[in-house]
Amino acid sequence: MVARPALEVGDIFRDNAPRYKRTEKGHLSLEQLKVISAITRCRSAQLGGHQLHCSHCETDTIAYNSCRNRHCPKCQSSAAKRWLEARQSQLLSVDYYHVVFTLPAEVAQLAFYNKADVYGLLFSAASQTLMTIARDKKHLGADIGATMVLHTWGSSMTHHPHVHCIVPGGGISHDKGHWQSCKKGFFLPVKVLSRLFRRLFVEGLRRLYDEGRLQCFGKIAELVTPALFDKWCYVQQTREWVVYAKKPFAGPEAVLAYLSRYTHRVAIANSRLTKVDEQHVSFTYKDYRLKGRAKRKTMQLGTMEFMRRFMLHVLPSRFHRIRHFGLLASRTKLALARRLLVMPKLEESLTLPSDDDVPFKCHACQNTMTVSAITEPLYLSRAPPRKEC
Predict the structure, then answer these.
(1) pLDDT in tens, 36-57
(2) pTM, entire model
(3) What is the C-alpha to C-alpha distance for residues 169 and 166, in angstroms, rounded to an integer?
């Protein structure tokens, strides 16, 4: 069992959720209300739990059930661990690169009111950009793959949608006869990626607008007028869009270590909280305009503002924020890549441990604890109505 952090996002929600819902009444979506409910009940008696006993030191304790909501900071560590174990067998013995596609602030406003469509467009435009430039013989001339993770927040929890791409340094040649590696320490030209990404994304926005799938409110309410939307799109195409490429990772193991910090984290981790009282929440963040240790600062927000910023990053129902493209999305292509790189074949099956398979550890002596009793949840979801009713 892991020691409970001194400060938790769940405590902030439990103490302030009723007031926040009254303040934001009529402005919260169903998904946001579900997240508030889940985080408030997480690891509490309302969800039930297990009474545990250690036969070694005779310690008795209660472990309450988690909410398993993907937005809960406390429930993501085990999910991230299982996901990484599944990805471990798929790593290739090549350098990996980190590419980030970021939406400009003006486009991010439109994304906020159209999350499912615009976030989906962000994935498709970024993946198409990488695949298209990589297939060009002027740059790489190969079919590549990528694992992409959507982040909608900056370090200060503001709305800042961008997608992190972990890409192997090379791909399968067009004749499928050999592995085509990129230049040492250089993957693809950032300026070329930026220009194509900008064009594909704006073209996608125009299609969504023509199909009537974009909603415009607040500061961008004027975009409901086709002429103004067309002018707005032209302005966005004249701006510089940020595409950032980092140096290659130090081996496949470093890729997994890096992914563990990006795949299942939402908005803020409990470890970043420094002080919580009735009126304010303080947490650490990074000011990327500075370098070295000086960029680590502490920010203080009002409790209601902290919860509002957290709610900005609730994703639409069933929206997948981790996606695979190219050879990493095809088991056949991945097997071919491993064969060209003279690597062992992929395992036919990979059995991952569920939460029920993970043993409870005694916090006093670290021995395995046994379940002596099960506590039923106090809150039971309503069953679907019967046909005769």
Answers:
(1) 998 998 888 788 877 777 877 8
(2) 0.86
(3) 10
289 is a domain residue: no
Could you tell me the CATH number of the domain that includes residue 213?
3.40.1310
CB 113 within 8 A of CB 29: no
Sign of CA pseudo-dihedral 99, 105, 107, 112: positive
User: What is d(CA 28, CA 311) in angstroms, rounded to the nearest whole number?
Assistant: 9
As for how many domains the chain has, the answer is 2
Residues 146, 42: one domain?
Answer: no
DSSP 147: E
Look up tokens 């001194």; give the residue: 6
Domain residues for 23?
9-71+354-375
CA–CA distances in Å: residue 286 to residues 63, 240, 308: 34, 24, 20
Is there a single domain that holds both residue 232 and residue 255?
yes
Find, among 273, 281, 265, the residue nearest to 15 by Cα: 281
What is the DSSP code (8-state) at residue 242? Answer: P
Written as six digits, the tokens of 249 are 């990772």
Residues 6+ apart with CB under 8 A from 51: 60, 61, 62, 371, 372, 373, 374, 375
Same domain, 216 and 327: yes
pLDDT-derived band at 381 (thresholds 50, 70, 90) equals low
3-state secondary structure 148-198: EEEEEECCCCCEEEEEEEEEECEEEECCCCCEEECCCCCCCCHHHHHHHHH
